[in-house]
Amino acid sequence: MAIARPRFSRTQHAEFFNTLRTRVNQYFESNNISRYGNYKLVFKTIFMLALFLVPYFLVLFGAVTSTWLSLLMWGIMGLGTAGIGLSIMHDANHGVLSRYKWLNKVMEHTIDIVGGNASMWKKKHNVLHHTFTNVDGQDDDIHAPFILRFSPHQPLRKIHRFQHWYAWIFYSMLTLMWITYSDFKSVFRFREEGMIRNSKEFRKEFWQVAGWKLFYYAYLLVLPIIFAAAPFWVTLIGFIIMHLVTGLMLSVIFQLAHVMPECEFPMPDDKGLIDSNWAVHQMSTTTNFAPNNKLMSWFIGGLNYQVEHHLFTNISHVHYPEISKIVQQTAREFGVPYYSEPRFFRALANHARMLRSLGQPEMAA
């Protein structure tokens, strides 16, 4: 049975996004530049793929024999996996890695190569998260296991008072869940919610998820166990290390953008209406972090500029630093919130404080 989705107000702050969109379009037109990725993104794509593939082939073909060096290679592959997801797959799935649609289509499947699933990601991220950010029951990014509480509208349990200590362990397990369980669960969940419309589509989605998972385990786990110089147990430990590194990185990047003290968690009224314009909703539920940290911004695909990303998913992340100036100025003019944490570790500490607050009774809806 299809689930009812909330609607946003069409009147509140309607002029804000119209003005902002016009100004951003003028920026690209006046500077005669494309909103897609540029030569810098080509270099980054090559770098991130190499960061994952070079250690993999060194391990696979026995060039690395030391146990500790083997584990280091797996750790570097974890960085490469995160880099592929944040800098390549993310833009490709939004159709902005390249002006060529076929290239975006090819590169979006890099998520399948590193253990996720492109189709499930689009439904969870592009549709649900980007439309209904921080709306409990709608936004898949705050739809967590019962042991974690990311919204004041979710049930409060006694164990949540400690989540600011143990959440990081579960963050590290994110991609381990993807490769074993989460994507299959999503197929069944989306059928129940009407996002998968019929039995034929369900079967197609289920078997393409299963097929990609089999391919992933075959090349990234079975082949190294057979051919790597290191003992099989080193490969197993390395495989887990890789996912712990990737899971922690991805979880932290996405949670720092929305589960923060300043972010709101709106809910629709009895008629299914959210009392906010969609663009203002994005502004009130999203925060940037460490915008001046150029190295971090480069490695994580500009996702420390989450405000700009949520407003303009049709623009490549390489342009976020420049358009952020336009967004901030326009928000100031219209009295719309624009949240930004200046430093990464300060943002991390504030996220931990938010987790602690969400574990307290006063944060019950």
Structural class: mainly alpha
Termini Cα gap: 27 Å
Portion in beta strands: under 5%
**Uncertain spans, ≥5 residues at pLDDT below 50?**
none
Helix and strand sequence: EHHHHHHHHHHEHEHHHEH
Task: Indicate the percent of residues in helices.
Answer: 55-70%
Give an overview in words.
There is one protein chain. α3 (67-93) runs parallel beside α10 and α7 crosses α15. It is built from 15 helices and four strands. Strands 1-2 form a two-stranded parallel ribbon. It has a two-stranded parallel sheet with strand order 3-4. The chain is mainly alpha-helical. The longest helix has 29 residues, at 199-227. The chain has one domain. The model has no long low-confidence stretch (mean pLDDT 94).
Record the SSE blueprint.
Elements: E1 7-8, H1 14-30, H2 39-60, H3 67-93, H4 101-107, H5 110-113, H6 118-131, H7 163-172, H8 174-193, H9 199-227, H10 232-255, E2 273-274, H11 278-284, E3 287-289, H12 294-299, H13 306-311, H14 320-334, E4 339-341, H15 344-358
Parallel strand pairs: 1-2, 3-4
